[in-house]
Amino acid sequence: MQLELKNIGMIKEANVNIDGLTVIAGENDTGKSTVGKALFSILNGISLDGELVDYHYQYTLEKTFKLSYSEFPKGAFIELTTSYAKYYIHFDDRVSGTTTFYRDKGYKGVMFIESPLVWNLQDLFSVSTNIESHLKMMGEEIEIPYPYLMKDLYFKLATQKSDIQSDNVVLLKQSLLEVMQGEFRQDKQSRIFSFHRNEKTFDLINVATGIKTFGIIQVLIDNNRLVKNSVLILDEPEVHLHPKWQLKMAELIVELVKNGVKVLVNSHSPYMIEALQRYGEKADIVSDFYLAEDGFISKVDDSNEVTISKIFMKLSEPFDIFEEMDSEILQNG
C-alpha cells in the first residue's frame, strides 16, 4: 500500500510504502508523526464508516492513498477526533465498494501508539466512557473531548477481538514477560489494569514508563489486536527506553512483521534505527527506510542502504559539535 501526502502540516511531499516494516527517521518537527496520523486517519476512517462517497482523498485498486492540503482541513492531524475520521476521510467514487474490497484483502485494524502515558489516563477513560454511555441511554448525546489517539488506544487495550493469534505471536508474549519480569493484567470487575510481579500487584502510576511501553504491546497481543494484516504505528517508541531496551523493542517489532503485522516506526534514535536495520536483514523481512528532511520524506536514490547512510550522517551531527568543543579545549589548553 502506498501513502502519498502533499502540503500536509510540515510535509511538502511524502510517498511512503506500507508493506512490512516502514521506518521514517529524522529530526524533530520534520513531519514524521504526520505520516503516521494520516495513515491512522485513513485506515480508521475505513473502519468507522462504510458509506463514504466524496472526493477528499483518492483511492485506487493499486491501494494508493493520496491526501493534499486543498482537500483536507488545516489542523486535522494535530488533534484527531471521531468526526474528522468519519467526515474528512472519504473514498473516490470512481471505485465502488472500496471498503469491502479492502476488508476482503484481510485488513484487521490499525493501532497508533503515541505514548505509554495512556496507562496514566485509564481511570479517566473508564469513568468518562461510563458517563457517556449512561447519558446516551437517557437520550442525551454527549461526547467528551478526549485526545482521540489515546482514547482509541485505550479502547483497544480494554477490549478483546475474537481473532486467533498465531503460535509465534503467543511465544513472542513470553519474551515480553521476560523483559518486563512481570505481566499487565486487567481486573474483571473494575476493568482497570495493574502490573503483577513475583505475586505482588502494582498500580500502573508506580510502574516505570519503559515497562509501560512494553506493556501496551503485551496487552494488544492478549486482545488479539496484533494479528496478520493489522497495522501498528509507533511514534518514537524509543523515547522512554534505555538503549539496551531499544534493541529489545526493535527485535520485537521485527518479530511482529515476520508474523504479518505491518509496522510503521517514526524514530530519531540511531540505536533504534540500526537495530531495526540489522534485525530486519537477519529476518529477511520487507523493509523500507525513509529520511524526513526539509519538508520531504523520501528514500534517497530509491535505496535503503543510501538512505540509512544519510540518516546516520544527519543524526550524528551532535557528535560533530562535541568534536568541535574538544578541539576548542585543546586549542585553549
TL;DR of this structure?
This protein has helices spanning 32-48, 82-87, 98-104, 122-137, 148-158, 167-180, 209-222, 243-258, 270-283, 304-315, 317-332; strands at 2-8, 11-17, 21-26, 58-59, 64-68, 110-113, 183-186, 193-197, 200-203, 231-235, 262-267, 287-293, 296-298. Helices cover 43% and strands 20% of the residues.
Characterization of this structure:
The chain has 333 residues and is of the alpha/beta class. Helix content is 43%, strand content 20%. It contains 11 helices and 13 strands. The strands form 2 sheets. The protein has a 10-stranded mixed β-sheet with strand order 4-5-1-2-13-12-3-11-10-6, with helices on both faces. A 3-stranded antiparallel β-sheet has the order 7-8-9. α6 packs antiparallel against α8. The longest helix has 17 residues, at 32-48. It is globular, with a radius of gyration of 21 Å.
Instruction: Report the C-alpha radius of gyration, rounded.
Output: 21 Å
Determine the mean pLDDT.
80
Oligomeric organization of the protein chains: single chain
The CATH first-level class of the largest domain comes to: Alpha Beta
Structural class: alpha/beta
Task: Spell out the helices and strands N to C.
Answer: EEEHEEHHEHHHEEEHEHEHEEHH
Distance between the termini: 58 Å
Number of helices: 11
Strand order of the largest sheet: 4-5-1-2-13-12-3-11-10-6
Kindly estimate the percentage of residues that lie in beta strands according to DSSP: 15-25%
Query: What's the CATH topology label of the largest domain?
Result: Rossmann fold
Task: Count structural domains.
Answer: 2
How many runs of DSSP E, i.e. beta strands? 13
Question: Looking at the structure, what is the overall shape?
Answer: globular
